[in-house]
Design a protein that fits this description.
It comes from Methylococcus capsulatus. 65% of the residues lie in helices and 0% in strands. It is built from 6 helices and no strands. The model has no long low-confidence stretch (mean pLDDT 87).
């Protein structure tokens, strides 16, 4: 995704990540997911900062794929709505308007893509054991 750089700084991105996770961990619906998943917050913050640095500043610091990690979490569709609300609020507070709009658009796209991949189809029950009619 080659988008033009925004007016955000690495310091603002770090602040975005820090404040967002403060809010997420204060949320009764999101905190249990993070508590069960994240064991090293410093590393987690660095990875997320690298992701947003790539998204907003077109750096090469993040080369991963966030979907497979999130697809294995015990998430429900409403978790994405809560996450987006907290993220929008934090981005608008911390980032310049153009960077906030770009970050929010990316987060909304990711949330919709993740939900489509995680919840659009019923779980695969495995192979059907059937006998052909004679």
């Amino acid at each position: 995704m080659n988008t033009p750089p925004t007016s955000a700084t690495e310091q603002q991105i770090a602040e975005l990540v820090r404040r967002f996770y403060e809010r997420a961990l204060a949320n009764d619906s999101l905190r249990p997911i993070f508590d069960a998943t994240v064991t090293d917050w410093d590393t987690h913050h660095r990875v997320v900062q690298d992701f947003w640095s790539r998204t907003l500043l077109d750096t090469n610091r993040y080369r991963g794929h966030p979907y497979p990690v999130h697809a294995q979490l015990p998430l429900q569709p409403e978790h994405f709505d809560i996450w987006l609300g907290l993220f929008r609020e934090t981005a608008r507070e911390v980032l310049p308007a153009d960077a906030a709009a770009q970050a929010i658009a990316r987060a909304e796209h990711m949330a919709e893509s993740f939900k489509a991949g995680m919840f659009s189809f019923p779980p695969y029950p495995g192979p059907k054991l059937w006998k052909p009619a004679l």
